[in-house]
Write a structure and sequence with these properties.
This protein has 211 residues and is of the alpha/beta class. The chain has one domain: 3-Layer(aba) Sandwich (Rossmann fold). It has 8 helices and 7 strands, in the order H-H-H-E-H-E-E-E-H-E-H-H-E-E-H. A 7-stranded mixed sheet has the order 3-2-1-4-5-7-6, with helices on both faces. Strand 4, helix 5 and strand 5 form a beta-alpha-beta unit. 32% of the residues are buried.
């Protein structure tokens, strides 16, 4: 299998990112090239798969090489979505155009996606209508200069605390947080979440059974 190298920050990429930020657009041409989907991202998908049980319906937004679909437990139904068509069953959406996949699922995943989205509140809120569980990663800013992040194509700069507060504010309850990797400008974390309203609903049903 060909090893697809992870991206390195460049000044040219930083300039392109600034332009994307001004226009609130997605770099579709970049994601159309399969070689830009780093092989090491498959390890992140393997971590996510361990959080998901058997017999689950999974919507993978920003599916990329679709590694998650090959790593899920038994009898899971996998639906990829991305800004370009990865396979015939892939739903083509652009989160920066506020396009979201159709259907209802048990899990929604955003793996290495939200760094490229101008308004991350919108897809996180839409995910609440699509599933009761969420796996999401984010490369949290650790105080380094933003030039490095722009050089990777990232259009936002949340700290770990700010990202977690945003998750909670839109309606997700964080159940677990694990470190995926560390870089000079960021630490990537993986979160497993449950929808607040779903959690409240379960609690209300349990109370009715008790009383």
């Amino acid at each position: 299998m060909q090893n697809r190298l992870p991206p390195l920050p460049t000044s040219e990429r930083a300039k392109q990112t600034e332009e994307l930020m001004r226009n609130r657009e997605t770099d579709v041409d970049r994601w159309r090239e399969f070689d830009n989907l780093a092989t090491q991202w498959d390890e992140r998908a393997a971590m996510a798969a361990k959080l998901i049980g058997e017999n689950q319906r999974v919507l993978d937004i920003g599916a990329g090489a679709m590694a998650l679909g090959t790593l899920l437990p038994n009898n899971c139904t996998y639906t990829p979505a991305d800004v370009v068509e990865r396979c015939p069953s892939c739903q083509v959406v652009d989160l920066n155009k506020q396009q979201f996949p159709t259907g209802y699922y048990d899990w929604v995943t955003f793996l290495g996606v939200l760094e490229y989205v101008h308004d991350i509140t919108w897809p996180l809120r839409k995910a609440l209508n699509a599933a009761s569980r969420l796996v999401v990663t984010y490369c949290a800013n650790i105080g380094a200069a933003t030039a490095g992040r722009r050089g990777l194509g990232w259009v936002n700069d949340y700290s770990k605390r700010d990202f977690e507060e945003l998750l909670t504010s839109v309606g997700w309850k964080i159940e677990s947080c694990s470190e995926v990797k560390r870089g000079p400008t960021n630490i990537q974390y993986m979160y497993s979440c449950i929808a607040h309203q779903r959690d409240d609903c379960i609690r209300q049903v349990s109370m009715k059974k008790v009383f």
